């Protein structure tokens, strides 16, 4: 998933590993959640591209899912129960034909937008079609690959005919025709691209300023591209059609662009409006964790979760010297994961990774290390490989990273790698970019650097949505947001992805995802660094904290402030 977050196959009970006891119960005399009040969200990263076509989310996202309802959604419950896909706008999770190439959905009765007009199947079709427009790219890339005849579709602004693969025989029925079996289509239907958009109110690239709400909240303000987003109740949303979102607060005030340490300090102190505050993107750091350990009241306000996510080094082999596999292998051997884990906040916040797939059964995790260098790296082996590559005197490279203080793709990680690679004779120059510039740069084929920090999260708990967007050559996007950084287009990899997607035995599929991960891992197209552990504070007046195995973090749709 797009760096975000972001990002489950549930039929066999598989799920991203999450906490059995999430903590963060809230404090105070009355723990029963009540309606009313204002929930404040304190975030580091702004909620950019607040358009359902452009968002790349896991299960519909956190703040986005308050505004955008989709055909299906994640079950809003603690632990493993939250790993299920459930109906949202639709009456069920979808009805497939015999070989799962045709999926039919029926919309619930009484669905309305914020202005009271009815939501129709044609609106969902249009919402999906506009996500194909190059100027609105950035969302999950599956539909272009899965829908019949959609590969070259350029969206409704250029092609008024629309997608013939999506039929709307009446206002409540929508039918999807796929060019191959996809048993996991109900999970894809949780993505925001499946949110309805009324054609008459589509303002193109400006739609993000005031998207038309189908959820419990509508947008009042969206300032500075998501830096300040103010939501209020949507009076035409009905709990009778939505059993997933609680919609307790009257108002939700999302304020971003804050330093992570400031967020943690404000949540810890819980003064004024901060007593009714949460964060959807900021972990506790090492110093805050130490403080929490000795404070029972603070410890009671910490939620812990694991989400299927991998932070890694990405290579672009079209850029020298990364076109040489030996150079990439040398870097893999030179990496000191123990220093990277420390830079990410320590072992309480990060687990070292040698596989691209997260270390959870549902993803098909198969332990392997294609370039075994131990916890601290192997500079001698790295130098040997550099010499074989023609760089016996070492080389100089540039590592691109984000300046955001996220302990993931940020300066701390970059510096740890710089120090480790220096021992192998690799001089690393650091190129730090502001977060928006970083994402625009690394996700464009035209500007993508050869060596940069990246992260990928699960769209649902399966190896498919983890491996396909990053390594399936048919998902390379040349004129929009691209996530296949290595630009790998290997027929054997593409074919194996197709073969696994046909399987209905999810245990068998998981084993093959693990084997494919190992095959790709040997190509040194990425260097897995660590899997994050989420530990996040909530304000003292927060009630009803729910952390599912789908997201691993607090579900904002369940929170109450009274």
Automatic annotation (TrEMBL):
<feature type="region of interest" description="Disordered">
    <location>
        <begin position="16"/>
        <end position="49"/>
    </location>
</feature>
<protein>
    <submittedName>
        <fullName>Peptide/nickel transport system substrate-binding protein</fullName>
    </submittedName>
</protein>
<dbReference type="InterPro" id="IPR000914">
    <property type="entry name" value="SBP_5_dom"/>
</dbReference>
<dbReference type="Pfam" id="PF00496">
    <property type="entry name" value="SBP_bac_5"/>
</dbReference>
<dbReference type="InterPro" id="IPR030678">
    <property type="entry name" value="Peptide/Ni-bd"/>
</dbReference>
<feature type="domain" description="Solute-binding protein family 5">
    <location>
        <begin position="84"/>
        <end position="474"/>
    </location>
</feature>
<dbReference type="GO" id="GO:0015833">
    <property type="term" value="P:peptide transport"/>
</dbReference>
<dbReference type="GO" id="GO:0042597">
    <property type="term" value="C:periplasmic space"/>
</dbReference>
<dbReference type="InterPro" id="IPR039424">
    <property type="entry name" value="SBP_5"/>
</dbReference>
<dbReference type="GO" id="GO:0043190">
    <property type="term" value="C:ATP-binding cassette (ABC) transporter complex"/>
</dbReference>
<dbReference type="GO" id="GO:1904680">
    <property type="term" value="F:peptide transmembrane transporter activity"/>
</dbReference>
């Amino acid at each position: 998933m797009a760096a975000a977050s972001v990002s489950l196959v549930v039929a066999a009970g598989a799920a991203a590993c999450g906490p059995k006891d999430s903590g963060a119960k809230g404090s105070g005399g009355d723990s029963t959640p009540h309606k009313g009040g204002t929930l404040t969200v304190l975030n580091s990263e702004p909620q950019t591209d607040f358009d359902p076509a452009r968002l790349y989310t896991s299960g519909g996202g956190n703040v986005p899912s308050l505004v955008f309802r989709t055909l299906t959604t994640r079950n809003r419950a603690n632990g493993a129960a939250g790993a299920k896909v459930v109906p949202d706008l639709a009456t069920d999770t979808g009805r497939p034909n015999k070989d799962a190439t045709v999926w039919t959905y029926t919309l619930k009765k009484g669905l309305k937008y914020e202005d009271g007009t009815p939501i129709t199947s044609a609106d969902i079709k249009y919402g999906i079609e506009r996500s194909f427009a190059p100027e609105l790219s950035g969302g999950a890339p599956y539909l272009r690959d899965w829908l019949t005849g959609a590969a070259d579709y350029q969206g409704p602004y250029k092609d008024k005919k629309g997608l013939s693969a999506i039929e709307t025989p009446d206002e409540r029925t929508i039918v999807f025709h796929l060019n191959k079996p996809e048993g996991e289509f109900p999970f894809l239907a949780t993505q925001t691209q499946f949110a309805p958009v009324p054609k008459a109110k589509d303002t193109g690239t400006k739609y993000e300023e005031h998207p038309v709400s189908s959820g419990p909240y509508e947008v009042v303000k969206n300032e500075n591209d998501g830096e300040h987003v103010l939501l209020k109740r949507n009076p035409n949303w009905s709990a009778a059609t939505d059993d997933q979102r609680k919609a307790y607060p009257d108002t939700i005030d999302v304020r971003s662009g804050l330093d992570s340490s400031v967020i943690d300090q404000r949540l810890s102190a819980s003064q004024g409006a901060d007593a009714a505050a949460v964060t959807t993107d900021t972990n506790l750091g090492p110093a805050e964790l130490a403080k929490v350990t000795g404070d029972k009241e603070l410890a009671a306000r910490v939620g812990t979760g694991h989400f299927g996510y991998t932070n890694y080094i990405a290579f672009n082999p079209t850029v020298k010297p990364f076109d040489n596999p030996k150079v990439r292998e040398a870097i893999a051997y030179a990496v000191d994961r123990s220093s990277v884990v420390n830079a990410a906040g320590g072992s309480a916040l990060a687990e070292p990774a040698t596989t691209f797939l997260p270390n959870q059964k549902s993803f098909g995790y198969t332990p392997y290390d294609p370039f075994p260098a131990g916890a601290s790296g192997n500079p001698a082996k790295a130098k040997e490989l550099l010499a074989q590559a023609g760089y016996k005197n070492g080389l100089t490279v540039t590592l691109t990273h984000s300046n955001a203080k996220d302990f993931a793709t940020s300066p701390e990680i970059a510096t740890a790698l710089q120090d480790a690679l220096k021992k192998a004779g690799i001089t690393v120059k650091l190129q730090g970019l502001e977060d928006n510039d970083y994402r625009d740069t690394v996700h464009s084929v035209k500007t993508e650097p050869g060596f940069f920090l990246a992260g990928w999260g699960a769209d649902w708990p399966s190896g498919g949505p983890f491996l396909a967007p990053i390594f399936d050559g048919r998902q390379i996007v040349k004129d929009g947001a691209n996530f296949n950084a290595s630009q790998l287009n290997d027929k054997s990899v593409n074919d194996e992805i197709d073969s696994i997607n046909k399987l209905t035995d999810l245990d068998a599929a998981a084993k093959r995802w693990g084997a494919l991960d190992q095959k790709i891992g040997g190509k040194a197209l990425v260097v897995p660094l660590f899997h994050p552990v989420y530990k996040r504070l909530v304000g003292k007046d927060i009630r009803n904290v729910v952390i599912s195995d789908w997201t691993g973090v607090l579900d904002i749709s369940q929170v109450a402030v009274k």
